[in-house]
Amino acid sequence: MIQWDKVSIAEMLFISIMLAGVAAIVGTGLEWAILR
Length: 36
Known about the structure:
By secondary structure, the chain is mainly alpha-helical. The protein has one helix spanning 2-35. The chain starts with a helix and ends with a helix. The model has no long low-confidence stretch (mean pLDDT 88).
């Protein structure tokens, strides 16, 4: 159970980091599009 909990937490952190990176890239892309 503890190992599964650690795995789920690691997966959630990895997914959250991936989503944050995608959101940052999309946000910067929108800013560049708006500025141009």
